[in-house]
Every structure is written in C-alpha cells, then in structure tokens.
Amino acid sequence: MKHCYWLFLLLFAVLLSSCITNKDVVYLQDKGTAMSDSLQIKELSKPYRVQINDILYINVKALDEELVSIFNPTSQENSGQNVGGANLYFTGFTVDLHGNIKFPILGEINVLGYTIKDIEAKVKTALLKQYFKETAEIFVTVKLAGLRYTVTGETGGTGVYTLYQDRVNIIEALANAGDIKTTGDRTDVLVIRQYPDGQKIHHIDLTDVAAMKSPYYYIQPNDMILVKPLKRKVLGAGETATQTLTTVASIFSVLVSTYFLAKNL
C-alpha cells in the first residue's frame, strides 16, 4: 500500500503541474518585454504588396459614366449584389504567375509587389496616356477582393476564411475562426506567409503584449495560421484543477483495486 501512496503522490505532482493556468490562455499580457508605454504600442503594419493569385477589384469612374463602362464588369453594376464573395472570383482581376492582370484596353499590367495605392496610380496613368484626357477627371479605386486566410490546429473551427476588411490582426482572424481552444498553445502560434520566392514560417507569442509590435501581428492574404496543442494535452491532463484531480483519483482507485486483488490472490 505504501508503494501505491508514493505512486499516487508522483502522479498527482505530474498532473497538477500539467494543469492549464491563467497565463496560458490570456492574450497580450505584460511580461516585461514591452517598453514602459506598452499600453500605447505603435503598430508596425506595412502597406500590403500584391502577390500571385491575389484577386483585385478595380473600379474606374469619370464624369461620363458611359466612357468607363468598358472597364467595369457589368455584373457588378447591374446584378444588385454586393461586390464580394464568388462574384469577385469571376469579375475581379486575378494576378497570374507572372504578376500581371489583364485589363480592358490597356492589356497586361504588372502589379506584383506593388501596393494598392501604387496600382491605382499606375492604372490611372495608363488610362490617361492611352484612352482619356485630363478633362475626363477619372478616378480609379483598387481593393483586394477580401482578405483570405487559413486556420488549422487547436482552434474552434479550422478552415479557409475571407474577411472583407483592409486590415485584420491575428487575434481578430482567430476569433473569426472560433478562437484558440483552451488546449491550444498561444505562446507559439505559427504564421506561414507567402513571398515571391516561396513560403516562410514565422512565430508569434500571443500571450505577450509585445506581439503587437510583431510584423506578423497583422495578417496578409493567403496567410496560414497554425495553432499547436499544449504539451499538457499530450500528457492527457485535465484543463482545470478539478479535471486533474478527477483523473488522479481515477488512476489511484484503479491502483488500489489492483493492489488488493493481487494481495488476495
């Protein structure tokens, strides 16, 4: 019986140390890694530069709307539907493998690596040079056709999501996917990002307020967010102290029963 007692204490110590604590699940804690003005951290988001397979929504306006009708897909003007979703897949401008889009009249325009503002200026300049006069007073609007990203791992809902916003931080993106489960590792979330020369894996600790200074705090189109399970989950410990104690009690009960059965044989 003495051996069971010590085994019980050992199991209790291991499982108790494996409990998921408050520090494991609270976002943006001040861990001393931020400056004294940690509550006023300056954002490090940079203008997004267009990548291959992005879909762009481009709208051209002028004093004479008939002159610009050829540049604006008719389905966007007459369908009565919001610009977005599957509609943009068919009517938007997809960046091909060479970084080009095919635009009416102007032909192929290279947009790879350009910001949205750059593309607006580029399209406007080309239109004024080849089709319009300055007196037409044209106005060009360029937007990404939604911010598409993938979430997988220990989250409430894995899958591919699209948000129609210009900027989305990683916490908002995860919240849209059902948030990270209690058993997910918030201290080492992986962001797999697409670059012209391939993909790179980045790490971000979402329990540290310093994460807001990370260049990966704001997600980009085609990002993949991967949340790993905590080691505590692998050990099979409970998420709370009550669950852990229940597990320990069950194991101890089995050990005691086994001990007495063996002793009576």
Automatic annotation (TrEMBL):
Gene3D superfamilies: Outer membrane lipoprotein wza domain like, wza like domain. This is Sugar transporter. The keyword Transport applies. InterPro entries: Poly_export, Poly_export_N. PANTHER family: POLYSACCHARIDE EXPORT PROTEIN GFCE-RELATED (PTHR33619:SF3). Keywords: Signal, Sugar transport, Transport. The keyword Protein biosynthesis does not apply. It comes from Seonamhaeicola algicola. Residues 45-142 form the Polysaccharide export protein N-terminal domain. GO terms for molecular function: polysaccharide transmembrane transporter activity.
